[in-house]
Structures are given as C-alpha cells and as structure tokens.
Amino acid sequence: MELLGVDTGGTFTDFVLFKNGEISVHKVLSTPSAPANAILQGIKELKLDLNKLKVIHGSTVATNAVLEGKGVKTVYVTNEGLKDVLLIGRQARQSLYNLQPSPGNNPVRRDLCLDVKVRMSAEGKTIQPLSNQCLDQLVSEIEEKQPASIAINLLFSFLDPSAEEAIEKHLTSIFGDRFFITRSSSVLPEYKEYERGMTTWLNAYVGPLVQTYLQQLRDKISPAKLSIMMSAGGTASAEQAGKKAVHMLLSGPAGGLQAAKFVGDTLSCHQLLTFDMGGTSTDVALIDGEIKLSTEATIANLPVALPMVDMHTIGAGGGSIAFVDPGGMLQVGPESAGADPGPACYGKGGVRATVTDANVVLGRLPAKAELGGALSLDYQAAVDAVNVLATQLNCTLETAAEGIIEIANEHMVQALRMISVQKGTDPREFNLVSFGGAGGLHVCDIAEAMGVSKTIVPTNSGVFSAFGMLVSPVSRELSCSYMGILPEMEPEKIESEFDRLISDGMIEMRQEGVNETLVQATLSMDLCYKGQSFTLNVGWSGIQATLQAFHATHLTRYGHTLEEQVELINLRVSLKAQTGSLKLKQVVENNLNKAKNGLFVHTMGEVPGWERNSLVLGQKIHGPALIIENVATTLIKPGWCCAVVQDGHLQLEYKN
Description:
Elements: E1 2-8, E2 12-19, E3 22-29, H1 35-46, E4 53-58, H2 61-67, E5 74-79, H3 85-88, E6 113-116, E7 119-120, E8 126-128, H4 132-145, E9 149-152, H5 162-175, E10 180-183, H6 184-187, H7 193-221, E11 225-229, E12 235-237, H8 238-243, H9 251-266, E13 271-277, E14 282-288, E15 290-291, E16 293-294, E17 297-299, E18 302-304, E19 308-309, E20 311-314, E21 320-324, E22 330-336, H10 355-361, E23 370-371, E24 375-376, H11 379-393, H12 397-419, E25 431-435, H13 443-450, E26 454-457, H14 464-470, E27 474-485, H15 491-511, E28 519-529, E29 536-539, H16 543-558, E30 566-577, E31 596-601, E32 605-611, E33 620-622, E34 625-628, E35 633-636, E36 640-644, E37 650-654
Parallel strand pairs: 1-4, 4-11, 5-6, 5-9, 9-10, 13-25, 25-26, 32-34
Antiparallel strand pairs: 1-2, 2-3, 7-8, 11-12, 13-14, 14-15, 14-20, 16-19, 17-18, 21-22, 23-24, 26-37, 27-30, 28-29, 28-30, 31-32, 33-36, 34-35, 36-37
Helix pairs in contact: 2-7, 9-14, 10-11, 10-12, 11-12, 12-13
C-alpha cells in the first residue's frame, strides 16, 4: 500500500509519498476556504491510485475554527449556580500591572450556558439527584436555543460520570443525532473545573465542523483509507478523530516533531531543538530523547488540558508582514500574507513586504528559484514592497531587508530560549533541527544567536511535517484523576486503575484494526507536593522509585525539593503501536558534482549554488553557499561546514 502524508499549512499544502521504498514530495498552494480542494488537487497531480492509497492527514480545521472564532453555536450544560465558570476563568492576568485589564474575547456565550439541579460531593457521593423534571426542563431550553452542539460538564464528574451519562442518554433519546453531544467525563476525566469545562466546550465548539470536513474528505478520496494526525504525536482513524476534535488542535506541528525524532534517531542525535518555520508561523520545541507532552497548552488564550506535544508557536514565518509602527520602528508579524495574496514575490497581487521578500531582495532566496517546483518568484515585486519600508525608514533597500530578517530571527530566538533556557536547559548541548519551507534560510543565524554549533537540515525539510505523519505511530493518550498521598496508597489499586485505562484505550485501537501485540503502554502520574497547584509528570515504577524520581525532577526543574508529602493527582497511560518501520533506499554516488554558477548574496558576494538532489553521501561544502531544492533553500553562512550524511540529511557545524 502507498502512504501519503498531507500537511495543510497556512500558505502551502505539503505532500510526501512513500512508494516502493522511495520518497517523493509535492506542494500546492493551500485553499483556506476549502482545505480539501488543495488535497484533491495534490492527489490528482501526483496521479495516485486511490485503491492502493492510505492518507495520513494533519488538519488545521479545528485550529482555525478556534483562532478565528468560527465554531458552531454551542450550549454548555453544568450544575446549578456554576454556569459562569467558563466566563470567569482564572484570575491570572496577561498584564500584571494593568489595573483595568480588558475582558478579552471569550467565545462562550452566557445565554447559551444552562444549569441543572444536580450535585455531587467532593467524595463522589450524590447530594442532589438528577430528576426527570430537570431533564425535561433542559430539553425545553435546548429546543429554545437551537444549538448545533452540546457540551456537558458537571462538578466532580471525574469521580462518578453517571449524572453526565444520564443527561447524554436522555438528550440522545430525544434529539437523536440532531446535535453533536460531548461530556467532560469522556473528553477529560480530571479535576480542575474550568480547564475541564473549557476543553469539553472546545470539543463541542469545533466537533461538528471537523466531523463534516473529515466525512467529506473521506467520501472524496474513497476508497483510499484516511487517518488523522493528533496533537499528542500519534494517529487515529478519521472516524474516531471526528469524535474528539479537540485532540486535533496541534495536528500538523505534531508531525514535524515525530519526523525530527525519526531523523535524530537515524543520526544518533537524541537531544534536539526543533525549529519549524513555515509561511505563517514558527513552531519550536525541545526533544530530549523523547517528545515531551504538555497538559497546559492554550489556544487563543483558552486552556486545553489534554496531552499535546510541548511546543511554542509565534507569528513569525516567511509570509509575516513587515511594517513601520507609529513610533517609527520596524516591526515584523504576527500578521501574515498567507497563501492569497501571499508575499509580494509570489506575483499574486501582494504589495506588503514580508520575510520572504526580504530574503529575495538579499539574494538569500534566488530569484530564479521556483517554490514547490512551480511557483516562480517576482524579484521586482519584492524590491518594490521592501522599498516602501526603506523610504519610510530613510535607509537603503538592503538595510531595510536586513532589518526585517534580523527582527524575525530575534522573535524565533526568543521562542527557543523560552522552551530551553527558561526551563533550565542549556541549548548549547543540543542540535538545532531546522525544517519548514523557510527554516533553512535562517538556521545559521538562529544557531549563532543561541550559541549552538551543530544543526541538522533534514532531507525534504520543506515538507517535513508531512513526512512525520508517515513515521507516526497509532496512539491513544488516556488519563483520570486518582487522588491521594502517594506513600499511603496501595500499589495494587493504582495498578488496577492503570489496567482500566489500558483496557479502554485498547478497545478503540482494536476497532481501528491495530494488532494489540504491537501496542506498548507507558504509565505515568502527575505528582506535586501537598498544597501545590501544579504537577510534574513522572513515570510509574512502584511507589518508592516514583517518589525518588519526582524529587529529582522537582530539583531539576525548580532547583529545590520540599519536606512536604507527595500527592498523586492524575494517572496517565500512553498507548502506541508502530504499524511498520519506514526504511528508505540508500543512494550512494562516487563522483562529486560541481556547483552551479555563483549566486549573489548581499553581504557575502558571489557564493556557489548547489542543487540538493545532486549532493552525494560524504560530500562537504564550506560556507558561504546556497543549497537549493524545490521545497526549501538552505543558506550556509561563512564559518559553517555542511556534510551530507545518511539519507541525504545535511549536518552543519560551526568551525570558527
């Protein structure tokens, strides 16, 4: 069977095809208003046989719906007196010293928050049972509101979900499949009412959109099989992904991290800083042996307390627009030119200067290059766009372009420091892995600013996230709150609860056709010192060993330990099934090809230009030089040496 990884980005939709042991790549411009159109166009241009095809897709449908506030009309059902929880949120303010902070754009509508008379104690005992009268009243109110989706979130439902299940069952018996119904005890059975409620609400908010999109895509590519990349770095069938749309909020970027780990393992480099610079944004993350997951992610300033790849995203990409602010200072992003009209150099009507235009003006991106193998660049349009800023700043064209690059680089450096230095990790001990369509042009600048001397630019780096989808396992992330003082708990009961979670996950994976003998389970727990509000995740290896691991982790993260008792908050199970290893054919050449005619790069003069597909194993290139391919361009600065290693990956090392 042929495998096709598809990553829908803000500017391009990327395709990576694995067939007969070989990789081929393709790009088309994204169609934001109808993302499936770009996918169908790519499949058509690749001339693929749908009967032999499996598509693994990273979708931005859920992400865009939340960011743009374009989810469906959603009713939120909770306990009497608690319907304002999602509107109040947490007391934390973005601006600590602002005494009159704006309330922000909370997408939850108060008129769609409904409450029912039912209550459970903190010990899981029923205080006020759910009555038929309350259920009938709820049905009447929902009829009046006419929503598209319903989110159910009751207090302490993670201890006993029976009341939530009763509400869901009653609403389903009345309305059938008229509404998308989701409950917190299914989406996130953990404590913290606000985070659990908002995560459940988000699932309901985007669920119908995701289900509709996936169903339409499945119908259009049938009989090809369709799997979806999830935010935790694994895949799930389209049917199951549609029920848990909130798990897709980092669908595309998660593929890039899986690809980075795959390449790192191939090259025996297990400490990686990843730097994914696309057309609209840049995603950065840290891999120390394994991909880190976080349950403290936010999207549009809303908490999503589900396991997601731990990354930081900023609005700095190749399409980020540069402008002069009212104070006369040059700024870059977060607004992006996107795919339409795109940067000025795309020749599609864009007139505002972007990072890509600055790279074209400086010769770092050759004007003769064709992005994605098809999109020709308009050098004069890039010059005209950057000249507008040069005039405003009263400087030369080249100085304005350099300023755009430097500011974009600084944004990305700050993001990398946030996920490394600010968390107690020395980035100089890591390899910087650069990918995304624009990453290779900035990798040397970023590495120098971070003090990193070794970088990796993978093969097909411009479509790297799509490649990552081909090497991602089928996976499930399950959790539940299970509280107590860890040294006082019975390990047998903890193991029993872990077994229950594993059983729940295996049911879903068997439905997907996964051979359970291939599934590996990783057990962990969220722990904290008694009285703390935030937890650390530690692998489970028995009570005493886990306690020691927690103290060591706390010391590494915060620089100290406490004498307080250690409290267990949540249990977590990660199930992964690697359905097959992706082995690429090795191509080894003996004769080195010569560089093409020199290309002019501002501040570097004439530099040799190499076609990446002409490079051979073991070849070394000293900077300055440009390495050009259809899906990306890599700039090797003076003082850097590039070596072609296994599978055609480029390892850059600073020699000065």
